[in-house]
Amino acid sequence: MKILVATQKPFDPAAIPQIEEIGKNAGFEVEVFEKYAEQQELVDKVKDAHALIIRSDKVTKEVIDAAPELKIVVRAGAGYDNVDLDAATAKDVVVMNTPGQNSNAVAELALGMMVFMARGQFNGKPGTELSGKTLGIHAYGNVGRLVAKIAKGFGMQVCAFDPFLEKEKIEADGVKALGSEEELYGSCQYISLHIPSNANTKKSIGKDLLGKMPENAVLVNTARKEVINEDELLEVMETRQDFKYVSDIAPDCKDTFAGKYEGRYFFTPKKMGAQTKEANVNAGVAAANQIVNYLKKGDTTFKVN
Ligand code: 3PG
Protein backbone atom coordinates (compact mmCIF):
# COMPACT_ATOMS: atom_id res chain seq x y z
CA MET A 1 0.00 0.00 0.00
CA LYS A 2 1.20 3.50 -0.80
CA ILE A 3 1.21 6.67 1.31
CA LEU A 4 1.54 9.70 -0.96
CA VAL A 5 2.87 12.89 0.64
CA ALA A 6 1.56 15.52 -1.78
CA THR A 7 2.43 19.06 -0.77
CA GLN A 8 2.67 22.06 -3.05
CA LYS A 9 4.31 23.98 -0.18
CA PRO A 10 7.01 21.55 0.97
CA PHE A 11 7.57 20.37 4.54
CA ASP A 12 10.75 21.36 6.31
CA PRO A 13 13.33 18.75 5.16
CA ALA A 14 13.54 17.39 8.72
CA ALA A 15 9.94 16.14 8.52
CA ILE A 16 10.22 13.89 5.46
CA PRO A 17 12.63 11.20 6.77
CA GLN A 18 10.47 10.85 9.89
CA ILE A 19 7.29 10.43 7.84
CA GLU A 20 9.08 7.88 5.62
CA GLU A 21 10.32 5.92 8.60
CA ILE A 22 6.87 5.64 10.19
CA GLY A 23 5.34 4.49 6.91
CA LYS A 24 8.09 2.02 6.05
CA ASN A 25 8.19 0.52 9.57
CA ALA A 26 4.49 -0.23 9.16
CA GLY A 27 5.17 -1.91 5.81
CA PHE A 28 3.93 0.87 3.51
CA GLU A 29 5.59 2.48 0.52
CA VAL A 30 6.01 6.25 0.97
CA GLU A 31 6.22 8.54 -2.05
CA VAL A 32 6.99 12.21 -1.64
CA PHE A 33 5.55 14.58 -4.22
CA GLU A 34 6.40 18.15 -3.23
CA LYS A 35 6.38 21.51 -5.04
CA TYR A 36 4.05 20.42 -7.83
CA ALA A 37 2.81 23.36 -9.87
CA GLU A 38 -0.54 22.37 -11.37
CA GLN A 39 -3.62 20.78 -9.80
CA GLN A 40 -3.67 18.27 -12.68
CA GLU A 41 -0.35 16.87 -11.45
CA LEU A 42 -2.01 15.95 -8.15
CA VAL A 43 -4.97 14.41 -10.00
CA ASP A 44 -2.55 12.27 -12.05
CA LYS A 45 -0.42 11.32 -9.07
CA VAL A 46 -3.13 9.97 -6.73
CA LYS A 47 -4.29 7.09 -8.91
CA ASP A 48 -2.40 4.38 -6.98
CA ALA A 49 -2.33 6.06 -3.53
CA HIS A 50 -4.04 4.34 -0.59
CA ALA A 51 -3.35 7.21 1.81
CA LEU A 52 -2.66 10.87 1.25
CA ILE A 53 -0.86 13.42 3.42
CA ILE A 54 -1.49 17.02 2.39
CA ARG A 55 -1.16 20.58 3.72
CA SER A 56 -3.20 23.34 2.05
CA ASP A 57 -3.37 21.27 -1.13
CA LYS A 58 -6.82 21.10 -2.73
CA VAL A 59 -8.38 17.67 -2.47
CA THR A 60 -11.33 18.22 -4.76
CA LYS A 61 -13.93 15.74 -6.02
CA GLU A 62 -11.75 15.36 -9.10
CA VAL A 63 -8.80 14.27 -6.95
CA ILE A 64 -10.93 11.83 -4.92
CA ASP A 65 -12.52 10.36 -8.06
CA ALA A 66 -9.08 9.89 -9.63
CA ALA A 67 -7.93 7.78 -6.65
CA PRO A 68 -9.81 4.45 -6.65
CA GLU A 69 -7.54 2.94 -3.97
CA LEU A 70 -7.77 5.90 -1.59
CA LYS A 71 -8.84 5.11 1.98
CA ILE A 72 -7.66 8.09 4.00
CA VAL A 73 -6.60 11.72 3.58
CA VAL A 74 -4.81 13.42 6.45
CA ARG A 75 -4.48 17.18 6.37
CA ALA A 76 -1.20 17.80 8.25
CA GLY A 77 -2.56 20.86 10.01
CA ALA A 78 -5.76 22.25 11.47
CA GLY A 79 -7.98 23.72 8.74
CA TYR A 80 -9.55 21.22 6.33
CA ASP A 81 -11.51 23.70 4.22
CA ASN A 82 -9.31 22.55 1.31
CA VAL A 83 -10.82 19.06 1.28
CA ASP A 84 -14.16 18.21 -0.35
CA LEU A 85 -15.60 16.26 2.58
CA ASP A 86 -18.78 15.25 0.74
CA ALA A 87 -16.81 13.79 -2.15
CA ALA A 88 -14.57 11.91 0.30
CA THR A 89 -17.52 10.56 2.30
CA ALA A 90 -19.28 9.45 -0.88
CA LYS A 91 -16.27 7.23 -1.66
CA ASP A 92 -15.81 6.03 1.96
CA VAL A 93 -12.56 7.96 2.25
CA VAL A 94 -11.80 9.01 5.82
CA VAL A 95 -10.54 12.58 6.27
CA MET A 96 -8.58 13.67 9.34
CA ASN A 97 -6.66 16.71 10.51
CA THR A 98 -3.87 16.88 13.09
CA PRO A 99 -5.25 19.40 15.59
CA GLY A 100 -2.79 21.23 17.81
CA GLN A 101 0.36 20.04 16.04
CA ASN A 102 1.21 23.34 14.39
CA SER A 103 -0.62 25.68 16.79
CA ASN A 104 2.39 27.12 18.57
CA ALA A 105 3.93 28.27 15.29
CA VAL A 106 0.73 30.11 14.35
CA ALA A 107 0.38 31.64 17.82
CA GLU A 108 3.97 32.93 17.75
CA LEU A 109 3.35 34.49 14.33
CA ALA A 110 0.18 36.22 15.59
CA LEU A 111 2.10 37.86 18.44
CA GLY A 112 5.00 38.67 16.10
CA MET A 113 2.56 40.44 13.79
CA MET A 114 1.16 42.46 16.71
CA VAL A 115 4.64 43.62 17.74
CA PHE A 116 5.44 44.43 14.09
CA MET A 117 2.33 46.62 13.75
CA ALA A 118 2.70 48.22 17.21
CA ARG A 119 6.26 49.23 16.24
CA GLY A 120 5.24 50.83 12.95
CA GLN A 121 6.58 47.86 10.93
CA PHE A 122 10.07 48.58 12.30
CA ASN A 123 10.24 51.91 10.49
CA GLY A 124 12.59 53.58 12.97
CA LYS A 125 9.92 55.87 14.43
CA PRO A 126 8.36 55.69 17.93
CA GLY A 127 5.72 53.01 18.22
CA THR A 128 3.59 51.60 21.03
CA GLU A 129 3.80 48.60 23.35
CA LEU A 130 1.51 45.62 23.71
CA SER A 131 1.71 45.67 27.49
CA GLY A 132 -1.54 46.92 29.04
CA LYS A 133 -3.45 46.78 25.73
CA THR A 134 -6.61 44.74 25.24
CA LEU A 135 -6.52 41.62 23.07
CA GLY A 136 -9.65 39.79 21.96
CA ILE A 137 -9.24 36.22 20.84
CA HIS A 138 -11.98 35.19 18.42
CA ALA A 139 -12.35 31.42 18.93
CA TYR A 140 -10.53 29.79 21.77
CA GLY A 141 -9.18 26.59 20.24
CA ASN A 142 -5.64 25.24 20.13
CA VAL A 143 -4.17 28.38 18.56
CA GLY A 144 -6.32 30.86 20.50
CA ARG A 145 -5.31 29.29 23.79
CA LEU A 146 -1.59 29.63 22.97
CA VAL A 147 -2.04 33.21 21.75
CA ALA A 148 -3.63 33.97 25.15
CA LYS A 149 -0.73 32.39 27.03
CA ILE A 150 1.94 34.32 25.10
CA ALA A 151 -0.04 37.60 25.17
CA LYS A 152 -0.34 37.40 28.94
CA GLY A 153 3.46 37.16 29.04
CA PHE A 154 3.50 40.48 27.18
CA GLY A 155 1.22 41.95 29.86
CA MET A 156 -1.84 42.23 27.61
CA GLN A 157 -5.39 42.10 28.99
CA VAL A 158 -6.78 39.07 27.25
CA CYS A 159 -10.46 38.42 26.46
CA ALA A 160 -11.97 35.67 24.32
CA PHE A 161 -15.23 34.69 22.67
CA ASP A 162 -16.00 31.15 21.62
CA PRO A 163 -19.59 30.03 21.06
CA PHE A 164 -18.60 26.35 21.33
CA LEU A 165 -16.83 26.51 24.69
CA GLU A 166 -18.13 27.01 28.22
CA LYS A 167 -17.05 30.30 29.77
CA GLU A 168 -15.50 28.44 32.72
CA LYS A 169 -13.01 26.67 30.44
CA ILE A 170 -11.79 30.02 29.11
CA GLU A 171 -11.73 31.71 32.51
CA ALA A 172 -9.71 28.81 33.98
CA ASP A 173 -6.80 30.19 31.90
CA GLY A 174 -7.15 33.65 33.44
CA VAL A 175 -8.78 34.94 30.25
CA LYS A 176 -11.97 37.01 30.39
CA ALA A 177 -14.74 35.17 28.54
CA LEU A 178 -17.13 37.52 26.71
CA GLY A 179 -20.67 36.67 25.67
CA SER A 180 -20.76 37.74 22.03
CA GLU A 181 -18.68 38.74 19.02
CA GLU A 182 -20.04 42.28 19.38
CA GLU A 183 -18.79 42.51 22.94
CA LEU A 184 -15.37 41.15 21.97
CA TYR A 185 -14.83 43.55 19.06
CA GLY A 186 -16.35 46.42 21.02
CA SER A 187 -13.90 46.10 23.88
CA CYS A 188 -10.56 45.04 22.38
CA GLN A 189 -7.97 47.17 20.55
CA TYR A 190 -6.31 44.03 19.11
CA ILE A 191 -8.36 41.17 17.71
CA SER A 192 -6.71 37.87 16.81
CA LEU A 193 -8.84 35.70 14.53
CA HIS A 194 -8.89 31.93 14.99
CA ILE A 195 -12.21 30.88 13.48
CA PRO A 196 -12.26 28.18 10.78
CA SER A 197 -13.45 28.93 7.27
CA ASN A 198 -16.79 27.22 6.62
CA ALA A 199 -20.26 28.00 5.32
CA ASN A 200 -21.17 29.81 8.56
CA THR A 201 -18.03 31.91 8.90
CA LYS A 202 -17.20 32.93 5.30
CA LYS A 203 -17.32 36.74 4.97
CA SER A 204 -18.59 36.91 8.57
CA ILE A 205 -16.09 39.54 9.71
CA GLY A 206 -17.21 42.87 8.33
CA LYS A 207 -17.92 46.48 9.20
CA ASP A 208 -20.50 45.70 11.90
CA LEU A 209 -17.81 44.11 14.02
CA LEU A 210 -14.71 45.98 12.82
CA GLY A 211 -16.44 49.34 13.13
CA LYS A 212 -17.01 48.65 16.83
CA MET A 213 -13.33 48.22 17.65
CA PRO A 214 -11.79 50.88 19.91
CA GLU A 215 -9.34 53.53 18.72
CA ASN A 216 -6.10 52.35 17.06
CA ALA A 217 -7.65 49.02 16.24
CA VAL A 218 -5.50 46.21 14.84
CA LEU A 219 -7.07 43.12 13.25
CA VAL A 220 -4.68 40.15 13.12
CA ASN A 221 -5.72 37.35 10.79
CA THR A 222 -3.75 34.13 10.96
CA ALA A 223 -6.93 32.13 10.20
CA ARG A 224 -8.26 32.32 6.62
CA LYS A 225 -8.75 35.25 4.26
CA GLU A 226 -12.18 33.86 3.34
CA VAL A 227 -13.68 34.77 6.74
CA ILE A 228 -13.28 38.48 5.98
CA ASN A 229 -15.89 40.49 4.11
CA GLU A 230 -13.30 42.27 1.99
CA ASP A 231 -15.60 44.98 0.59
CA GLU A 232 -16.53 45.98 4.12
CA LEU A 233 -12.93 45.75 5.33
CA LEU A 234 -11.99 48.24 2.60
CA GLU A 235 -14.80 50.54 3.77
CA VAL A 236 -13.40 50.42 7.30
CA MET A 237 -9.84 51.08 6.04
CA GLU A 238 -11.20 54.08 4.15
CA THR A 239 -13.31 55.60 6.93
CA ARG A 240 -11.03 54.85 9.89
CA GLN A 241 -7.48 56.15 9.54
CA ASP A 242 -6.62 54.49 12.86
CA PHE A 243 -7.53 50.97 11.67
CA LYS A 244 -4.79 48.46 10.78
CA TYR A 245 -5.02 45.02 9.19
CA VAL A 246 -2.33 42.37 9.26
CA SER A 247 -2.91 39.02 7.62
CA ASP A 248 -1.07 35.76 7.07
CA ILE A 249 -1.75 35.62 3.33
CA ALA A 250 -2.97 38.54 1.24
CA PRO A 251 -6.67 39.22 0.71
CA ASP A 252 -8.10 39.02 -2.81
CA CYS A 253 -8.34 42.84 -2.75
CA LYS A 254 -4.62 43.31 -2.04
CA ASP A 255 -4.12 45.58 -5.06
CA THR A 256 -6.54 48.10 -3.56
CA PHE A 257 -4.40 48.22 -0.41
CA ALA A 258 -1.15 48.74 -2.34
CA GLY A 259 0.03 52.30 -2.27
CA LYS A 260 -3.12 53.47 -0.50
CA TYR A 261 -2.88 52.44 3.15
CA GLU A 262 0.87 52.46 3.59
CA GLY A 263 1.95 51.45 7.13
CA ARG A 264 -1.57 50.31 8.02
CA TYR A 265 -1.40 46.80 6.60
CA PHE A 266 0.92 43.88 6.09
CA PHE A 267 0.35 40.61 4.22
CA THR A 268 2.68 37.63 4.15
CA PRO A 269 3.57 36.57 0.58
CA LYS A 270 2.60 32.94 1.34
CA LYS A 271 0.68 31.47 4.26
CA MET A 272 3.46 31.01 6.77
CA GLY A 273 1.80 30.59 10.18
CA ALA A 274 2.68 26.92 10.32
CA GLN A 275 5.93 27.25 8.39
CA THR A 276 8.38 26.20 11.07
CA LYS A 277 10.56 23.15 11.28
CA GLU A 278 8.90 22.18 14.56
CA ALA A 279 5.35 22.53 13.25
CA ASN A 280 6.15 20.62 10.06
CA VAL A 281 7.74 17.75 11.97
CA ASN A 282 4.90 17.60 14.52
CA ALA A 283 2.12 17.72 11.94
CA GLY A 284 3.88 15.41 9.43
CA VAL A 285 4.69 12.78 12.05
CA ALA A 286 1.16 12.95 13.50
CA ALA A 287 -0.32 12.54 10.01
CA ALA A 288 1.85 9.48 9.27
CA ASN A 289 0.99 7.89 12.65
CA GLN A 290 -2.73 8.55 12.15
CA ILE A 291 -2.62 6.84 8.74
CA VAL A 292 -0.82 3.80 10.12
CA ASN A 293 -3.21 3.57 13.07
CA TYR A 294 -6.24 3.83 10.80
CA LEU A 295 -5.06 1.36 8.17
CA LYS A 296 -3.75 -1.16 10.72
CA LYS A 297 -6.22 -0.77 13.60
CA GLY A 298 -9.17 1.21 12.29
CA ASP A 299 -8.42 4.09 14.69
CA THR A 300 -10.56 7.04 13.57
CA THR A 301 -9.36 9.64 16.11
CA PHE A 302 -9.48 13.13 14.50
CA LYS A 303 -11.79 11.99 11.69
CA VAL A 304 -13.68 15.06 10.43
CA ASN A 305 -16.15 13.54 7.94
C1 3PG B 1 -3.52 25.04 9.18
O1 3PG B 1 -4.72 25.07 8.88
O2 3PG B 1 -3.04 24.13 9.85
C2 3PG B 1 -2.62 26.16 8.77
O3 3PG B 1 -3.29 27.12 8.05
C3 3PG B 1 -1.37 25.67 8.07
O4 3PG B 1 -1.47 25.57 6.68
P1 3PG B 1 -0.21 25.05 5.83
O5 3PG B 1 0.03 23.62 6.16
O6 3PG B 1 -0.59 25.28 4.42
O7 3PG B 1 0.99 25.88 6.21
Short recap of the structure:
The chain is of the alpha/beta class and 305 residues long.
SSE series: EHEHEHEHEHEHEHEHEHEHEHEH
Q: What's the CATH C level of the largest domain?
A: Alpha Beta
Bound compounds, please? 3-phosphoglyceric acid
CATH superfamily of the largest domain, please? NAD(P)-binding Rossmann-like Domain
How many structural units, i.e. domains? 2
How does this structure look, described?
The chain has 305 residues and is α/β, with parallel strands linked by helices. The protein folds into two domains: 2-101 and 276-297, Rossmann fold; 103-267, NAD(P)-binding Rossmann-like Domain (Rossmann fold). It contains twelve helices and twelve strands. The protein has helices spanning 15-25, 39-45, 61-65, 85-90, 103-118, 142-153, 167-171, 181-187, 207-210, 230-239, 254-257, 277-297, and strands at 2-7, 29-34, 51-54, 72-75, 94-97, 134-138, 157-161, 176-177, 190-193, 218-221, 244-247, 265-267. The strands form two sheets. It has a seven-stranded parallel β-sheet with strand order 8-7-6-9-10-11-12, with helices on both faces. It has a five-stranded parallel β-sheet with strand order 2-1-3-4-5. The model has no long low-confidence stretch (mean pLDDT 98). The structure holds 3-phosphoglyceric acid. 3-phosphoglyceric acid is lined by residues 9, 55-56, 77-79, 102, 271, 273-275.
